[in-house]
Amino acid sequence: MKQKGKGKGIQPVSVVLVGITGMGQPYLETLLAGFSPGEIDLKAVIEPYPERSAYKEELKDRGIPVLDSFAQVIKGKWTPDLLVVCSPIHHHVPQASLALEHGSHVLCEKPIGATIQDATRLIRIMNQTKVWVMIGYQWSYSRAIQSLKSDIMSGKFGKPLRMRTLCCWPRDEAYYKRNNWAGKIKDSQGNWVLDSPANNAMSHFLHNLFYTLGEKTDGCAMPFEVTAELYRTYPIENYDTVACRAFTRDGVEILFYASHTTSGDLGPMFFLEFEHATVTYGEAADDIIAKDKKGNTIHYGSPEAEHPLLKLFEAVRTIQEPRTIFCGPEASIAQTLCMNGIQESVSTIIDFPDSKIDSDHGCNRRWVKHLLPELENCYKRAILPSEAGLDWASSGKPVNLGNYRQFPGGR
After folding, report:
1. Is the pTM of this model over 0.70?
2. What is residue 411's predicted lDDT score, i.e. its pLDDT?
3. 111 preceded by cis ω (within 30°)?
């Protein structure tokens, strides 16, 4: 899908892309072919392993430099209008901060980073430099989520009571071997990574609960307390299955369930409860549907209906014509804070019993028997696995996030 340009007379937006493999590949494809002629100018890409990219030769043919770091851009005494960051989690804030300090706007893939102190540092630098950052939670840029959020902010459904979401996306052993940081708590240099379902693949859906509750278009509700349960099937440092209950500062209950080790796919789905209505997605239809107590319904459409890189087009347009940033760091920080609390809630991640684990050596995948219906049951009942009487389940401790400023330890 090619997005339309704004017409003649607009200077091309200069762009540098960090990362051209993994999540960076669809960004590169879109920058190379998704914009109208003259709308953007891809000045360079930054990639330590360009030989892994299918576009290595095309970049060479187009004369687009492949650099080792943003420092090489700075040495050239120029900076792009937009830096797009698709690097590993623990590089997000350092790379985005350096770009801000040299005058470039930033579109950073989700999440903001690994720790709350990183996130708040990025916000501080952004406010000092007067340039902006977008965080790449694509649902937040969709018409469906923006329309829903607008109605929630207006009070159309009354007071929010409980928000829950579920996503089960099986992953194989190759997923955790694809790089040197997948499933890690820290990298080899001692930097926090905290890679997990809550801080990577399914972070979108944890973020979405807090984002839709935000009192401003560019804001989010903040968690005040979280209790988590963390489980592991693969031989990794961190967890591959999580369930948690959080409460916002206004007392709204937030429930999040996610796993990479179920027998099949399920979700994403959510169920939002308000005084006068419920809002669902993914349970019976790929459409966000609000239904009030009188039986009236509102169909918002699907957050998946638009271009998957709508956020990239939005970033370019915001440089061409300044507008509200739907999802900046202030609108995304709740996910980071909650995720840090999730990590601290459990002192020792529980390994699923061997008797519960099945595997397919042909596709190098493991899964936990019956975990899919067990998590779905917990989601429907709004309880944690330990509250469902499952013999493998154990709850962590509540973590107060009211004055939480530093991971680990809170203060």
Report:
1. yes
2. 82
3. yes
